[in-house]
Amino acid sequence: MNEGVGVVEFLSNIMNRAMNNRLGPHQISTITFFLFVLALSVSPIPAFGANDNLISKGAAARAKGKLALAEKFFTQAAAANPQGYRAMKALAEIKFELGKVKEANDLIERLLALKVTGGRQVLVYLKDEKEPVSGELVDETVVKMEMSEESSGPYMKNPMLMPTEYYRIFLSNDGKVKLFPKSQVSIKYLGIPRIIRERVVELQEKVKKKMIASTQAGGPVAMVILKGGCFEMGNEKGGPLERPAHEVCVASFTMDKYEVTQKYFQAKMNGNPSLFPGANLPVDSVTWMEANEYCQKSGKRLATEAEWEYAARGGTTSEFYWGEQMEPGKANFCDRECALNVRFPEISDGFKHTAPVSSFPPNPFGLHDMAGNVSEWVFDSYHEGYYIISPRDNPKGALLQISQKPRQGEPDSLFLAERSASRKVVRGGAWETTAFMLRPSSRKVFYPGYRIEGVGFRCAADLK
């Protein structure tokens, strides 16, 4: 005898007796619960509810930690309904947990390509009906205990109380909510709900960072030797932070050819704060302390503000390193693709957010992205009157000190110390700034603990 079916038959007999002998509500509800669980485990799968059953089995296996089995069920469910986000999302999560990050990312890309909906829009295919009806899924599973006249096996031939699963769906054509037995209908999702898509985007950030971790950082970072010289720092026609213009001379030094990418940062720092993950994208959302620590661990340092502007100008004296007017294709800034209200709709640079380093041509000194992509932390602390008193030779900014690391057990103390200590200078434009910020003289000032999705860095070093 099949033990599971025998137990169900036994419980069904008890249920029938309970109904006849008028047992108490607590006793009946207890019996009903066990009957429901066992009936689901031994009942044959109806054809119309097969995909939903696969999803249920996958979820149960995942809850028990049986990821390989869950992967099998969700793979079958996703194949049966290629446009259904439920199975695809669960499968992507399991692939990620199993370390199959490339497969997980492929599934995520498919999910993100689905139409975004405000709710769970579905087509309902009724058994024996040719055309589906449209609606919105309210509840995926509603269980009702009903008397069944059908035989569910050799041991269950008499009418008995059985759990029946329904979809609760709001029908678009008549504006009513109805229950549909899963054995009689199948549903097809028409897209992905906005709130679910947001969770998928969050999952992709984790997946991409894990993909970056498996990427080899490669050889030494390319650097450019810059021969020292004198130039006019600042801009009398610029904003208040850029004035007064003054002559500055810097000694020869070397500078990273590209902004520090995430694959190098993650390999060195064992972490990645970037909002836009990608091995060859510049690290973003990094604090000044993290940038400074990375450079020190690499045997380098952050460039001084004077060195940075000298390098960004590339020996030119114009508003932009390429000329007096903004030109398309020179740098990544908030253009037509940018979703922010400062965007410049007349120009498209091809990137909504950050771009892989070297996507844009170098300046005359051979340095990439000195105008845009991400703004860059420099070494200098900010002082309002420093441009007036700045030394002519190799200025290093206002020499104020900040805490490098928080005290043990006091995670908030560092942030408070950063706010009360010094502000740091950030140079250059970024994907989220206006074209005006692409000028070499442009400056911004932030507290060193700030994380901003448009701020990264590059390193410099003394010429040996």
Give your account of this protein's structure:
It is built from twelve helices and 17 strands. By secondary structure, the protein is α+β, with helices and mostly antiparallel strands. It has a domain at 217-462: paralog of FGE (formylglycine-generating enzyme), CATH 3.90.1580.10. The strands form five sheets. The chain has a five-stranded antiparallel β-sheet. Strands 8-11-17-12 form a four-stranded antiparallel β-sheet. A hairpin with a 4-residue loop joins strand 4 and strand 5 (176-181). It is elongated. The termini are far apart.
Please name the CATH topology of the domain at 217-462: paralog of FGE (formylglycine-generating enzyme)
Q: State the separation between the terminal residues, measured CA to CA.
A: 85 Å
Tertiary shape: elongated
Low-confidence stretches: 1-8, 35-47, 412-420
> Would you list the SSEs in sequence order as H and E?
HHHHHHEEEEEEEHEEEEHHEHEHHEEEE
The averaged pLDDT comes out at 85
- The H-level CATH homologous superfamily of the domain at 217-462, spelled out, is paralog of FGE (formylglycine-generating enzyme)
Helix % is 25-40%
Annotation, overall tally of beta strands: 17
Largest β-sheet summary: 5 strands, antiparallel
| CATH 2nd-level architecture of the domain at 217-462 | Alpha-Beta Complex
Approximate strand percentage: 15-25%
The level-1 CATH class of the domain at 217-462: Alpha Beta
How many helices does DSSP assign?
12
Query: Which strand order spans the largest sheet, edge to edge or round the barrel?
Result: 5-4-3-2-6
Q: Please compute the radius of gyration using only Cα atoms.
A: 32 Å
The SS-based structural class is alpha+beta
